[in-house]
Design brief:
By secondary structure, the chain is an alpha/beta fold. It contains seven helices and ten strands. The chain starts with a strand and ends in a 7-residue tail after the last strand. The structure holds adenosine-5'-diphosphate.
């Protein structure tokens, strides 16, 4: 369970309100989309969850953990519970698809045996086994994002956070990426995704939180995009 309790984040001594008095919960295994205009506070909200930045007020809980009370030395362990996917993929250009995914496992202290076993499974989940030894420049945008998703799930996190994962993709690649995120969610991982894409929201038919000027203005169980 994720719980935001009256969370606000102000930048520049309160001149800039990124999020304001945000309260919501996400249950395990939910798929939640967060929508809103540019500047509405979506990315800031995700940053509060991964403890990349501290709230100005309020608390963020992950299960019983008060995320912003976690000592700095324990943050890497907390962040391993969360896989992240970004609009611009953030793949290492000098590593192949396999090596990009393996690198996330190495950073997590996993053994060579585990890497040999789990990386092919992650590649299979995103339907990319034939491209295991391709470098990022040899992959389409959709394929790159699927490698990034494989990297995000390979350490079996509890949550996937995807910040505009289809923002750079054409409609077919967008559809494929959404299907893969759905499959990962069906397998038991909570997914929190920000998006601008109305088609994605309609295709998902899952919960939608709408933000505007830092506040949650709608929270629909089977949402539609209404901005
Ligand atoms: P979104 O992801 O919905 O586009 P953001 O969370 O990135 O919105 O930004 C929300 C607001 O907070 C914007 O007005 C933005 O300019 C401001 N903001 C975000 N990060 C910073 C920062 N590091 N310093 C100052 N203002 C920021």
């Amino acid at each position: 369970m994720i719980y935001f309790d009256k969370v606000s984040k102000h930048y520049n001594n309160r001149n800039s309100i990124a999020i304001e008095d945000v309260t919501f919960q996400v249950a395990p295994r939910e798929f939640v989309s967060i929508v809103g205009h540019s500047g509405a506070g979506k990315t800031t909200l995700l940053k509060m969850l991964i403890a990349e930045d501290r709230p100005t007020a309020g608390q963020v809980f992950f299960e019983s953990l008060d995320v912003h009370q976690i000592p700095r030395t324990k943050l890497p362990k907390y962040r391993r519970k969360i896989g992240t996917v970004f609009q611009d993929f953030k793949l290492l250009s000098h590593k192949t698809a396999f090596e990009n995914i393996a690198f996330a496992m190495e950073a997590n202290g996993r053994s060579d045996e585990e890497i040999e076993e789990n990386v092919p499974q992650a590649l299979a989940l995103v339907d990319l086994e034939p491209k295991a030894w391709n470098f990022p420049w040899e992959l389409s945008g959709g394929e790159k994002q699927r490698v990034a998703i494989a990297r995000a799930i390979v350490n079996q996190p509890d949550i996937i956070i995807a910040d505009e994962p289809t923002g750079n993709l054409d409609p077919i690649a967008t559809y494929e990426v959404v299907q893969i995120l759905k499959k990962i969610n069906d397998l038991g991982t909570t997914v929190i995704m920000t998006t601008h894409n109305k088609g994605v929201i309609d295709e998902l038919g899952r919960r939608v939180i709408t933000m505007d000027e830092g506040r949650i203005v709608r929270d629909d169980v089977e949402g539609t995009y209404s901005l």
